[in-house]
Amino acid sequence: MREPTKTVTVAVDAMGGDHAPDEIVRGVAQLSLDASHIQTILVGDAERIGALLQKTRHDPERIAVHHAGSRVMMHEKPAEALAARPDCSIAVAAELVRDGAADALVSAGNTGASVLACARTFRRIPGVRRAPLAAVYPTEIRRGEKDDPFSLILDVGATLEVNAEDLVSFALMGSAYASAVSRNPRPKVALLSNGAEAGKGPPEIVEAHRLLASFTDINFVGNVEGIDIPRGTADVVVCGGFVGNVVLKMLEGVSETVVRLASYAYKERIIWRAGLMMLSGGINRLKEVTDWQQYGGAPVLGFDKLFIKAHGRSKARAITNACKVAAKASQSGLATQIETALQRFELARAQSLTPAAIVKPA
Amino acid sequence: MADAAPTLQYVYRWDLDKTYLKTEFDTFMQLIRSAFEKAEAKRAIPGAAALLRELRAGGKARVCFISGSPRQMRKVLTQKLRLDGVEFDEFILKPNLRNMLTGRWAAMREQVGYKLPALLSGRAGLPVEVQETCFGDDAEADCFIYSLYADILAGRVPRVLLEEILEKAGCYPADAERAVSLAETLPRGDAVRRIFIHLDRRSPTARFDRYGSRVIPVFNYFQAALVLFEDGQLEAAQVIRVALEMVDRFDYTLDALRNSLQDLLRRSRLQRRTATLLGEVLERDGVPSVGALPSAREMLASFSARIQQLGDVPTLSGPSSKPIDYLAALEADLHTRSKVRD
User: Fold this and answer.
1) With contact defined as beta carbons under 8 Å apart, do B234 and B225 qualify?
2) Domain spanning A1-123+303-331: which superfamily?
3) What residues contact residue B336 under an 8 Å CB cut-off, 6+ apart?
4) Which one of B253, B266, B311 has the shortest CB-CB distance to A7?
5) What's the mean pLDDT in B123-135?
6) What pLDDT, on the 0 to 100 scale, is given for residue B318?
7) Does B253 touch chain A (CB under 8 A)?
8) Chain B within 8 Å of A56 (Cβ-Cβ)?
């Protein structure tokens, strides 16, 4: 049982998600067989989790179970649910991370409740006013050492109104995260707007553009339009939560519609069916490359502790990968990197120096 | 079979490959590599050597190995055990050369017809009060064979049923006849107290529920040591020495050990009061501060935290104690082979 790298412990909300706890437990069980450097703590109904583990191949040396007496259901109002059941799995899991029993948190449960539990439990990194929720989206272009097909979009719903400083902090945090997880040393960061020109967009976008353009620590490439998201023009796309949420839902809607149209075509005419069958190899490859389950989840950034939000529909594979992403980001010291980036930005602005003149930390 | 020493109280029967040795023979190349490997190159399962040394300490126990490896490997295998400081009393290997020369090709892979008569023969001559614990793995038919052996000794397998089981297991008639004949002559007694199955393949533990509470699937030998402590066969310090070998020689972490303890508690294969008792004894006597094992205080705090994490929820009920349906187990666990003619 050699452990080549530093061990990371991930707390997993076993009761959160459409397929919880069965698929969550299966995902963690698979992780225990795959990754010798990741320890997990399954948080939830200990009896039920234990029964599921007994039926699943796993390595118990890498899994602990922490009992939580209740759970937040997917449809519940976050604040009410957390107030009514302080012993719910997401709250207990967040406390384990806060107390140092785990390094990162993964949940496929109620997004609002998860973000709220983290906001109440974790410390916000100095300089972060709002903690954005990120999402990943498959693009034409591959990036980083690992040929990652996914770009990062943030914020996709944690905030409603943002100002220029919020957008700048989102850009810095997104850049640090993409750099750590995609092993992309200088990810291309862009603001989402209605035109590529610096003066396009609402005042907060224009101001954020001005601030980011003068800061050379990150690879800011200017504004991008909606059409550029699937093209992969930028590795990190920054926007406010309202816009980001609309964009994300639209992208998901388009994907679902394409699948439905293909399904319709398959049933409608034999010749179309034959055509689709001939293309099936390529379609499957495309599906494989763009399958969000291979990424597992996306982070809520801005806290001193890492939280990876997995899709509510996550099955075992997505959970396994979400835990791997959490471990990788945690090992990279993401919170420290974000804090340093924010400090350097503030310093550059305060001293009205060109940021390039600031000596980079060793 | 030598006469039992007057003080003999216990017999520990061990399989070798995947139970004591970390052997890979899933492919032909692995099988060849394993056959020609030198003793120094062979690797033991973490904690197995330490557990065997502790079990044999005191001189009241006998250690018997029974392996499916060919007799030609005796020298290298016994040399490996000597290198690990493991002493044994009996070492049975499969007569594969003879099987080959007499055209008994199926016997080269078949386990029931080889191991069951060997176990029964090993029992002959032992006083009825001598108890046994068997160690096997999840790669082949160890659980089935050891359970059948235990129930034969206890008089729970009638002759007709045994004949049917052996036939359906694909045993050669001569092997089956030998097993039946030995089973008839042995004195009856519930001698096999425990059967430990080392989950080399990380099989789901529920797979072994059909074999009842006597069978304990374990993921490592720290878990086996904990159960043996509960059974009164090991002392607290001996459990710690097993853990120490795993930490010092195999890079086991404290997390891995305490998770292993929690796993046993979750599965109701260890009682909470045993864990508490172990903690009390260790606190009183202290843990030897050698190797990479943390101090007694740190270790107890760490173990105690894992136990508390389970809360007050009831642990799962263990397997039932109803009689084993060997014919169903055969269907589920072994590939039933067609009857082979001698």
Assistant:
1) yes
2) Isopropylmalate Dehydrogenase (3.40.718.10)
3) B168, B169, B170, B330
4) B253
5) 93
6) 66
7) yes
8) yes
